[in-house]
């Protein structure tokens, strides 16, 4: 699958997913050790996208289980298709009447019908949900259990049982063992703390907001039509916004949305007017918008000050080098 950590980085980059060595190392170890990966971090930093990209890079079919409060075994594993069972019962009504011919008691008639249970409780009448789909798939798969922190602790306990052996027991059919062990990624936005038992069974990966350098590379890959200066200004502004005390700090997904919005408006630079008009693209709460607007002039002044400092650096460098050379020679 992957020969090295560097191969992981290159394979993900080929799918337009730019990651650092830490992420690539965890993905490499997950494939080698066949262990699930619990990916935690703020919303919008690329947790789900990582799983999708790994599936594409490895040629695996992606099976996704979206978690939510109240999710139960029937929705995640399997359930019986009762309407189809009822239809078949109606169609085979005459056959059942024939089976009961000669039965002297109700008990005897029920026993004869019960012997045919396997007809109605078989693969023909079972509806496989994501977990069972991943276990019974003929080809290697990647199972994405998305936002597992939104599920109830009871479901988390059930999930542990499935992930331990990748087999499930259906009382009417028997034990079903995975044909090939799927890669498993679980994502969490930290809505609640995951249990120690789940964390013990998984490799842990925390994806934080990217560094400015990495975020520039991501934008250059995802929004190649944007000018380099606009990308650098935009990323610098996003990092300054994340330093404010906001209810929801903008993530990399909002950075991409903002870049595309600015291109749609034919904006070639960040100025107070265009930033004010587009704050709603990256900030999702009115209180955050107002706070950012009140700080906007300071943010822009800081950007201009950093740009001026960078512009002054090259002119100062030769003289500093000359002083050093004079001292040495």
Topology:
Blueprint (H helix, E strand, L loop, with lengths): L4 H10 L6 H13 L3 E4 L6 H12 L2 E6 L6 H4 L1 E3 L1 H10 L1 H8 L5 H9 L2 H4 L5 E3 L1 H7 L4 E6 L6 H13 L1 E4 L3 E4 L5 E6 L7 H6 L1 E4 L5 H11 L5 H14 L10 H13 L7 H11 L3 H43 L1
Parallel strand pairs: 1-8, 1-9, 2-5, 5-8
Antiparallel strand pairs: 3-4, 6-7
Task: Tell me what you see in this structure.
With 329 residues, this protein is α/β, with parallel strands linked by helices. It folds into three domains: 5-77 and 129-206, P-loop containing nucleotide triphosphate hydrolases (Rossmann fold); 79-125, no CATH class; 212-306. Helix content is 57%, strand content 12%. The chain has helices at residues 5-14, 21-33, 47-58, 73-76, 82-91, 93-100, 106-114, 117-120, 130-136, 153-165, 196-201, 212-222, 228-241, 252-264, 272-282, 286-328, and strands spanning 37-40, 61-66, 78-80, 126-128, 141-146, 167-170, 174-177, 183-188, 203-206. The strands form three sheets. Strands 2-5-8-1-9 form a five-stranded parallel beta sheet, with helices on both faces. It has a two-stranded antiparallel ribbon with strand order 3-4. Helix 12 (212-222) packs across helix 13, helix 13 crosses helix 16 and helix 14 crosses helix 15. It is elongated. The relative contact order is 0.12.
């Amino acid at each position: 699958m992957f020969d090295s950590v560097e191969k992981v980085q290159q394979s993900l980059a080929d799918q337009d997913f730019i990651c650092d060595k830490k992420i690539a190392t965890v993905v490499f170890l997950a494939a080698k050790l066949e262990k699930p990966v619990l990916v935690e971090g703020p919303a919008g930093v690329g947790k789900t996208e990582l799983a999708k990209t790994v599936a594409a890079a490895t040629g695996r079919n992606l099976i996704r289980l979206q978690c939510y409060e109240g999710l139960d075994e029937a929705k995640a594993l399997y359930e019986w298709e009762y309407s189809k069972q009822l239809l078949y019962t109606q169609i085979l009504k005459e056959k059942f009447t024939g089976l009961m011919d000669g039965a002297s008691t109700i008990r005897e008639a029920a026993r004869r019908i019960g012997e045919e249970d396997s007809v109605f409780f078989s693969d023909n009448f079972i509806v496989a949900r994501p977990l069972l789909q991943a276990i019974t798939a003929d080809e290697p798969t990647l199972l994405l259990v998305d936002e597992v922190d939104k599920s109830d602790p009871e479901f988390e306990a059930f999930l542990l049982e499935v992930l331990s052996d990748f087999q499930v027991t259906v009382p009417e059919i028997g034990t079903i063992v995975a044909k090939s062990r799927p890669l498993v990624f679980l994502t969490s936005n930290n809505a609640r703390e995951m249990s120690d038992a789940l964390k013990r069974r998984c490799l842990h990966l925390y994806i934080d907001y990217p560094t400015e350098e990495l975020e520039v590379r991501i934008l250059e890959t995802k929004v190649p039509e944007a000018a380099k200066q606009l990308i650098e200004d935009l990323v610098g502004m996003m990092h300054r916004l994340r330093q404010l005390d906001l209810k929801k700090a903008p993530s990399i997904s909002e950075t991409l949305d903002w870049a595309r919005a600015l291109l749609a408006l034919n904006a070639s630079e960040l100025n107070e007017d265009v930033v004010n008009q587009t704050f709603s693209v990256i900030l999702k709460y009115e209180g955050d918008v107002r706070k950012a607007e009140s700080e906007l002039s300071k943010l822009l002044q800081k950007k201009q000050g950093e740009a001026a400092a960078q512009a002054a650096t090259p002119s100062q460098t030769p003289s500093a080098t000359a002083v050093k050379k004079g001292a040495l020679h």
